[in-house]
Hints:
90 residues, alpha/beta, 3-stranded parallel β-sheet, 3 helices, 3 strands, 30% helix
Amino acid sequence: MEQGFLGRDFPDKSSGRFRIALTGDSFVSGTLTMPYYTAFVEVLQKMLDSAGYRVEVLNCGVDGGARDYDIFKMIPCKIAPLQPDLISVS
């Protein structure tokens, strides 16, 4: 939560790992998912880990529908500093 997103804090980017930042509404953030480790982003991370991929998935979801404009404004100031290799906007 240090970065202002729900879930685990994001460590500094490690070399050799591809970093994906997923944005979107509460489906991505997982606020309605209990326990949290069953949230979409966490399940995706576990699947990638178990398949042996060196990929880190960041949960940059924000609660609320129709937040597209807010998410686009957030990319340069909150998501880009996390150094993602790919940003998925949904």
